[in-house]
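1st attempt posting a full record on here, be nice pls
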Amino acid sequence: MSASSASTPPAPGRHLPALLIIAAGCFIAMITFGPRSVFGLFLVPMSRDFGWGRDVFGLAVAIQNLLWGLGSPFAGAIADRFGTVRVLCAGALVYGLGLVLMAYSGTPAGLQLTAGVLVGFGLSAASFNLVLAAFGKLLPDRLKSLGFGAATAAGSFGQFLFPPLTTGLIEAVGWQETLIIFGASLLLVMPFSLALATRGAVRSAGTAAAPQQSVAAALSEAFRHPSYVLLVLGFFTCGFQLAFVTVHMPAFLVDRGMDLKVGAVTLALIGLFNMVGSIGAGYLTNRMSRKWLLAWIYAGRGVAIAAFVLMPVSPWSCYLFGAAMGLLWLSTVPPTSSLVMLMFGTRYMAMLYGFAFFSHQVGGFLGVYLGGQLYVTLGSYDVVWWLSVALSFASAAINLPIREEAVRRPLAAQA
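the predicted structure (as tokens):
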């Protein structure tokens, strides 16, 4: 036994059954993604009560998306170094505090601080990004892609569960009390995070990660690798579309004469069908080219969005759109995270996937922000819808040159 292995005891999570690890990670993904996915349902009541334009709420959520992405690489680096549990617990506390204080944010600055800064940084340390990285370290190789798909699907189940729950709570107790309830529910993350303890976890012998590689060397290697850069750039579109639809879809449908519940049902259908899409993508990730899988997903989104914009808006067209987008919603995550692990191994997976996710969230910032700003300026969301279509096909093309292989290192770096 080497000195390093003797001095670092195996992480507790390594001794738990794989299914228990997956179940705990899936619960965390669900409980953290759920409240964040229904922010659009608070746009109308908060804007009405405080006399805001949609640009005010849109800017706050845009800040949230940007800081969620900005904090993810740092949260991932801390989790890689000190373990997942501490990061998840701290993130859940900050996220929950942001939701509770958001209920009392009567000014645009207060909303930007709570819904934007606190929730954004909280999400960066308490979301399925860290769950995926923990799965990469704790699960056997044969279950990793399935675990990625299951965690992504669990986040989708949160998106399916929370819209009807949110509308019901808003009608029963009010939007402020609903935010407080959601904030308190995040405390449940803390006990479940214990199953994902990764400090000292033994890395798979077959991964490409060099055990002695420094953080700086890992970052330099990643951003000099063309395939990683292409993967990061393509992920921008995913964030742009998800954030725009999540936040502005309910208000878009209200403008078209639909009841707010139609928007809630549409978001719920996205979450429901994304459970199928995410698990299916996790299954296909090990059975076909990952880059082609991503290209087909992005191209499919472009077709679905274009068809929705061109069709007359009705409840059934909304529900059909929700089902189609749901199949493609977070199905990008299993092949993207799997490619990061394939290229660089699991040693710095949380950090490197965090940088890919930062690109995703820059897209989310622009999707939410442009949605609000262009609506105020032009009185419609048409430009943003068609920009989403164009970005879909651009990302489909960007992923095709990716090389699906481990990065090549000098032998001395792997010694």
